């Protein structure tokens, strides 16, 4: 199968757009390939501009839980478009989606809509700082919370490091209030609290999906809650990826730990640009115009985006048993691949949360970012290229999570496992 048209399109795009892409991970850099240009999606499939068809385990990096071109979401968008694209004034669509999300998340009394996950997290952190009157925040190595300045911090050496910016252009002064802790390691968080003059919040992906899939231990989250309460800091669950993906009612419903604020994105927009953050009434009351913490957006709560999000979340709410079905499929996929890999002497660690799946080429369990880095990423690159040739589109990095959409059938899973077996045979 040829990819000449994609190669040519990539050359042209690189002349006009830095790296040829509008978000770096799309460039296939970490697997050493070149990206496919997509012509269209249909259910579980992606079709590239050379006409090749792939089973899509990326689904726009999470949002499309019903697959491409879901009829009810598509109709909702078309319906909304006919009334106008944007008004910059309140619409009923915003209240409808708010009501739905508030009814689903126990921890959310009030919610604010924005246009991306990055914005949601950035605003939630500002709110936490405004509410507590403190500056420092704690984040975890390997967790991604969007590309805002104070959250672009990489790990240093040692148990606790005050954050160094992980991108040029981010002043160290902006990240000196970001303390780094180790995922699933409560002592590292305790150290942060002991070293800081005042921590506004701890932000965590309760089901981490940006270092591969690495769920937090229940016990760890419970200890985090206790520590936050002890110091009067807020606990923020960043569920931009895991929200409506891992389970219907939020990570709080499967971990037993309730956060003070939750950030959402991806599925909540049904494929349109939507982010959101919400939490307890008393905290949300500090947000402008009710309170003094400023936050705004020309296209926030955009009626077309709200319509797409509402259609997606409502359909999930009406079919919440879907998560069991998706989880069974995800499990069948990763367990099947693991058995196939072992037959060729390749060790694999696999995990699943609802429609999210993860795998590492590693002999030992992956509990944190160091473990994720220690996995065999060179082998992953070969696996990725091999699967693409077989017609299966996996995320182009070993640090990403895979997604099952409702359009993926058991037969497709079996085909994927059979293809993986051939690929393992070739690369082992
Ligand atoms: C994707 C993601 C973000 C950023 O969302 P964008 O819409 O890409 O800005 C933030 N947090 C987590 C956990 C994510 O997965």
Sequence-ordered SSE layout with sheet pairings:
Elements: H1 4-16, E1 38-42, E2 45-48, E3 53-56, H2 71-81, H3 92-104, E4 110-114, H4 117-132, E5 136-140, E6 153-154, E7 161-162, E8 164-165, H5 172-175, E9 178-181, H6 186-195, E10 199-204, E11 207-208, E12 214-215, H7 218-231, E13 234-239, H8 251-255, E14 261-264, E15 275-279, H9 281-284, H10 303-318, H11 322-343, E16 349-353, E17 356-360, H12 369-374, H13 377-390, E18 392-393, E19 402-403, H14 410-427
Parallel strand pairs: 3-18, 5-9, 5-10, 10-13, 13-14
Antiparallel strand pairs: 1-2, 2-3, 4-15, 6-8, 7-9, 11-12, 14-15, 16-17, 17-19
Helix pairs in contact: 2-10, 3-10, 6-7, 11-14, 13-14
Bound molecules: pyridoxal-5'-phosphate.
Structural overview:
The protein has 428 residues and is an alpha/beta fold. It has two domains: 173 residues, Aspartate Aminotransferase, domain 1 (Alpha-Beta Complex); 248 residues, Aspartate Aminotransferase, domain 2, CATH 3.40.640.10. Helices cover 39% and strands 17% of the residues. It is built from 14 helices and 19 strands. The protein has an eight-stranded mixed sheet, sandwiched between helices. Strand 13, helix 8 and strand 14 form a beta-alpha-beta unit. Helix 3 packs parallel to helix 10 and helix 6 packs parallel to helix 7. The longest helix has 22 residues. About 2% of the residues have low confidence.
């Amino acid at each position: 199968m040829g990819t000449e048209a994609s190669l040519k399109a990539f050359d042209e795009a690189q002349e006009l757009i830095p790296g040829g892409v509008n978000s770096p991970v799309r460039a296939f850099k970490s697997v050493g390939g070149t990206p496919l240009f997509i012509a269209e999606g249909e259910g579980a499939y992606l079709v590239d501009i050379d006409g090749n068809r792939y089973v899509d385990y990326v689904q726009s990096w999470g949002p499309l839980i019903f697959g491409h071109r879901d009829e009810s979401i598509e109709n909702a968008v078309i319906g909304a478009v006919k009334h106008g694209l944007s008004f910059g004034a309140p619409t009923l669509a915003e209240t409808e989606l708010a009501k739905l999300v508030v009814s689903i998340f126990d921890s959310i009394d009030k919610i604010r809509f924005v246009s991306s996950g990055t914005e949601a997290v950035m605003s939630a952190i500002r709110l936490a700082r405004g509410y507590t009157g403190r500056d420092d925040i704690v984040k975890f190595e390997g967790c991604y919370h969007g590309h805002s300045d104070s959250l672009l911090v990489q790990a240093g050496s040692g148990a606790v490091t005050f954050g160094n910016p992980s991108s040029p252009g981010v002043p160290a002064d902006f990240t000196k209030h970001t303390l780094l802790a180790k995922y699933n390691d409560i002592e590292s968080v305790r150290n942060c609290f002991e070293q800081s003059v005042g921590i506004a919040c701890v932000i965590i992906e309760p089901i981490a999906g940006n270092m591969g899939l690495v769920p937090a231990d229940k016990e760890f989250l419970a200890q985090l809650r206790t520590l936050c309460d002890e110091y009067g800091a807020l606990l923020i669950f960043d569920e931009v990826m895991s929200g409506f993906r891992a389970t219907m009612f939020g990570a709080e419903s499967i971990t037993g730990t309730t956060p003070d604020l939750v950030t959402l994105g991806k599925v909540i927009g049904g494929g349109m640009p939507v982010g959101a953050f919400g939490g307890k009434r008393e905290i949300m009351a500090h947000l402008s115009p009710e309170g003094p913490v400023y936050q705004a957006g020309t296209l926030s709560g955009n009626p077309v985006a709200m319509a797409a999000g509402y259609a997606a979340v409502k359909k999930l709410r009406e079919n919440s048993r879907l998560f069991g079905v998706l989880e069974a499929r995800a499990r069948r996929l990763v367990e099947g691949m693991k058995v196939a890999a072992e037959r060729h002497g390749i060790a694999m660690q696999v995990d699943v949360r609802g429609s999210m799946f993860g795998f590492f080429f590693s002999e030992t369990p992956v509990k944190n970012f160091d473990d994720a880095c220690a996995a065999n990423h060179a082998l992953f690159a070969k696996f990725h290229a091999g699967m693409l040739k077989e017609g299966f589109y996996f995320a182009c990095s070993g640090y990403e999570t895979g997604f099952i959409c409702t359009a993926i059938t058991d037969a497709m899973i079996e085909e994927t496992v059979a293809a993986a077996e051939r690929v393992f045979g070739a690369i082992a």
